[in-house]
Amino acid sequence: xxxxxxxxxxxxxxxxxxxxxxxxxxxxxxxxxxxxxxxxxxxxxxxxxxxxxxxxxxxxxxxxxxxxxxxxxxxxxxxxxxxxxxxxxxxxxxxxxxxxxxxxxxxxxxxxxxxxxxxxxxxxxxxxxxxxxxxxxxxxxxxxxxxxxxxxxxxxxxxxxxxxxxxxxxxxxxxxxxxxxxxxxxxxxxxxxxxxxxxxxxxxxxxxxxxxxxxxxxxxxxxxxxxxxxxxxxxxxxxxxxxxxxxxxxxxxxxxxxxxxxxxxxxxxxxxxxxxxxxxxxxxxxxxxxxxxxxxxxxxxxxxxxxxxxxxxxxxxxxxxxxxxxxxxxxxxxxxxxxxxxxxxxxxxxxxxxxxxxxxxxxxxxxxxxxxxxxxxxxxxxxxxxxxxxxxxxxxxxxxxxxxxxxxxxxxxxxxxxxxxxxxxxxxxxxxxxxxxxxxxxxxxxxxxxxxxxxxxxxxxxxxxxxxxxxxxxxxxxxxxxxxxxxxxxxxx
Amino acid sequence: xxxxxxxxxxxxxxxxxxxxxxxxxxxxxxxxxxxxxxxxxxxxxxxxxxxxxxxxxxxxxxxxxxxxxxxxxxxxxxxxxxxxxxxxxxxxxxxxxxxxxxxxxxxxxxxxxxxxxxxxxxxxxxxxxxxxxxxxxxxxxxxxxxxxxxxxxxxxxxxxxxxxxxxxxxxxxx
Lengths: 493, 174
Prior knowledge:
heterodimer, B: mainly alpha, 2 domains
């Protein structure tokens, strides 16, 4: 199945407009990721509106280019100024910045580029070969299994997305509550619509996402001080390619971290930051006699973290595309991008839209090749982006948030929803609530509700249906463990 | 030991622990309203339209209550923040959205941009003028003329005066 779908995918990607979109996405991602505080999630949420009228495959190429580019380039400020451009690059600074202090920033950035490419390619290959198998198995799933998966998605995400599992759960449940607004999917009853026609189809969750990741982050940035985060990062880099010795040194750790990172990324909720910390930690365990020591500017530490975080990008798409359960907040937005075109990610997608899927897979591989090319050729230029003051960027982002939400349905109402979500998100961030579970709750609620109610109708109201299905039972037990194990650990202190 | 910790937390529950987490209290109140209103929805058995909102709202009450019991002031990063700047930015955004039905997107954005740029500390007049005029026009062309998305035009549709683009058909678009 894989081979026979690659031909049509390559034909789709040979279109000059698609090549332009992939290139534009990668460049935008690299630019935004290089600026501290500009995350891949925020960039994709704000620029999603540019894809509304595009062919879905074309839109995904732009968004995946931004995703891969931003996760890669977050390493540049981490190496140069000890400030990760994106959360995924937090582990990169342990060895990247010491290398920079020795005057070897160029060496670290080149290693990071090659490792990001290796991790990314491994994860896309994993996505390409494993996801059809998972989707095939999931075709057997019925309502109880899908309900259990939705619950699992929410609990695992809440348990890994912040310090407080209770706050993560509240955030996810609030997202679910917002998703209940509109016409009841089973009886057609109007829930919380307040006689407003615009609410009949529910709250536009893309507007909510733009508010949570764009406006809330902007308000937070202004409250911290808008123009005090520039940092001089001048360090000239010579040559384009890493040395043969560095390549030989980073290759094994990049491959190993790529495999591990793709696996971690495929766990719902475990995004690039968690993948990078785990792969970095594993590298320090496996290569503990490495010289220089990890933390003192070991090039393999940079490679482990960067391969791990980029490998999570393809990994995150595995549950997203096969089960409709987002792997991280970016993949939640990508689900939104597909749903705008009435395409619902899940096992059926592999039967209904194989050409779209394989265009995404092969396109993501091409995107990683573009990242390698632009990363190596433009390292000197990307490093200078760090000095762009955020006072120049945030006013533009705020306008993009407004136009992005208006563009959803061509009305200002969705901009008000976006603004409301932004204020709520800002208040929640101040109080330590993670926002990613809220977005995932918004996406998972319809899956959870419809499948729960269908299951209960099928069983005549009995809960037996959930524990007589071995898969549903196993997944629900895992969900319970995802909440109780960290909670008990936290109470034990 | 766990029992003891839970008992200690309950003992400490009082006005101060609630004050330290006002958002949790707001969420509990919201959930109670949802439970009350959803219980009025027409019920055709136990899985009617109110079933799921009630289930979710009960979850919010349980986890918010657990959050009040377990959270402390030290969890918060609130002290690092100043509230005046985000309030001003929010006020500007509210004003921007309020005037947009009258001014349209193009003029509304041209009015909003200088205000937010000035507040963001940009003093360069050429940069301010360029961004205030150039960005709205660029976005208008991208969204309204290329993507063919309807943007608010306002009472006087000034945006219609902008020259049209030559028609270019991109395969796969639209």
